[in-house]
Structures are given as C-alpha cells and as structure tokens.
Design a protein that fits this description.
With 198 residues, the protein is mainly α. It has a single domain, classed as Heme Oxygenase, Chain A (Up-down Bundle). The protein has 9 helices and no strands. The radius of gyration is 17 Å and the shape is globular. The site of protoporphyrin IX containing FE has 15 residues, from α2, α3 and α7.
C-alpha cells in the first residue's frame, strides 16, 4: 500500500464509524419509537432523563487531556446542563449519580463522543417534534435538543475534521469503533429501561 492510499484509509475513520454503527443507529430509532417518546409529556420527561444520564457519561470523558487536545472546543459541546434545566422545567429531578464511563480509556472515549455529537443531528427532528407536540423550545424543556449557537452542521463538521485528521492507525480506529458501540449500547440500555428511569 502506498503512502497516499494509506492516508485515505486513515482519513475514512468517520465513514467507518458510520458504517460500523448503522445497525445500532437503527436500533436506537426503533427503541425510541417503542417507548413513545412524544406520546406524553411524562414520556418526553423520561427521555430527557436518559439524555441527561448519557450526557453525564460522555462529559466525564472530556476530562482526559488527550481528548481535549484533539477536540479543543469541548466547552461548547455536552448537553447535560441543558438537560438538567429541561428536567427542572419538566418537574423531574435525577435520582442517580452513576457514571458508567469511569473505566473508559482513550481512544475509545472518542467513540462515545462520536455517538453524542452525531445524536445532535437527529435531535433536529426531535426538537421539531417537541415543539409541535408540546410547544417546548430552546428556552423551555427542549434546550438539550436545540442546535448549537453556531448551527448543528458547522459543529459536526469540525468534529469530523478533528477525528479524520488525527491520523489514527487501524488498531486505534478499531478501539474508537469499539467505544462508539459501547456508547450506543449505553444509550440503548437507557432507552430500553426508559419508563423505569429515576
Ligand atoms: C428517532 C430518533 C433519531 C432520528 C430520527 C435520527 C436521525 C438521524 C439523522 C437523519 C442523521 C443523519 C444526519 C446527517 O447526516 O445530516 C443522524 C445521524 C446520527 N445519529 Fe441519529 N437519529 C435518532 C436517534 C439517535 C440516537 C438516540 C443516537 C445516539 C444516542 C443517534 C446517533 C447518531 C449519530 C452518531 C449520527 C452520525 C452518523 C454519521 O456518522 O454520519 N441518533 N441521525
């Protein structure tokens, strides 16, 4: 393999991530449909709780200096604070402090962050639905689904670029994909248990 082909393969990590997690993404959509997230404010509040717990898990990974070196704009990412405010609007208080990512290392952590950042894209649809069904907004109960101030696409593109330009080798890429699958599994577990979350 010549240097240029090798570089192209390395650059396609974001594509690999998308392909390797496509089935998990489908599963998330199905789980969300099954749990009828928009059927009632109660269900929507439980969904917001799942977002809150997942965001706490992901933001815990921001503390790793290798992560912040690679993704310098972490301070604008992460939606746990927004989700917490939404929960207050919805009169719900998280009862748990559990973080499941204590043992997650670099570079798997980047896979988790991929799941969280990618979910901001689908959140555009969810935001519209929260507006249409309940009249929620970026200022009330749907802050965590709102676009970043710069816009979803710009922030996503910057994330993609950071990941693709880092030049991870194949073994590292495998670990990042492993991390993404772990992230999807965690969110899937939260969704599957949505109505029992406290
Ligand atoms: C009903 C629920 C959902 C819908 C309708 C949805 C929809 C979408 C859409 C349309 C995109 C592609 C946007 C684009 O390429 O411009 C996308 C991307 C993505 N979504 Fe979702 N999504 C949903 C739930 C989720 C959940 C629960 C997660 C994870 C917790 C998630 C993670 C991702 C990721 C990681 C990507 C990026 C894929 C890539 O690499 O390009 N999505 N979603």
């Amino acid at each position: 393999m010549n240097a240029s082909t090798e570089k192209q393969l390395q650059n396609s990590l974001m594509l690999r991530l998308k392909q390797a997690t496509a089935a998990e993404h489908d599963r998330m959509e199905q789980l969300m449909q099954q749990s009828q997230v928009f059927a009632s404010e109660k269900n929507y509040a439980q969904f917001t709780l799942s977002q809150y717990y997942f965001q706490k898990d992901v933001e815990h990974l921001y503390q790793n200096p290798q992560v912040s070196a690679l993704i310098p704009d972490l301070d604008i990412r992460g939606r746990s604070e927004a989700a917490l405010q939404d929960l207050a609007d919805l009169k719900l208080q998280p009862q748990q402090q559990v973080i499941v990512t204590d043992a997650i290392e670099y570079p798997q952590s980047l896979g988790w962050i991929y799941v969280s950042e990618g979910s901001t894209l689908g959140a555009a649809f969810l935001f519209k639905e929260a507006q249409a069904q309940f009249g929620f907004s970026a200022d009330f109960a749907a802050r965590n689904l709102a676009a970043y101030p710069e816009g979803r696409a710009v922030v996503w593109k910057r994330f993609k670029q950071a990941i693709d330009e880092a030049g991870f080798n194949d073994a590292e890429q495998e670990l990042i994909i492993e991390g993404a699958l772990q992230g999807f599994k965690r969110f899937g577990d939260l969704l599957a248990d949505l109505h029992n979350l406290k």
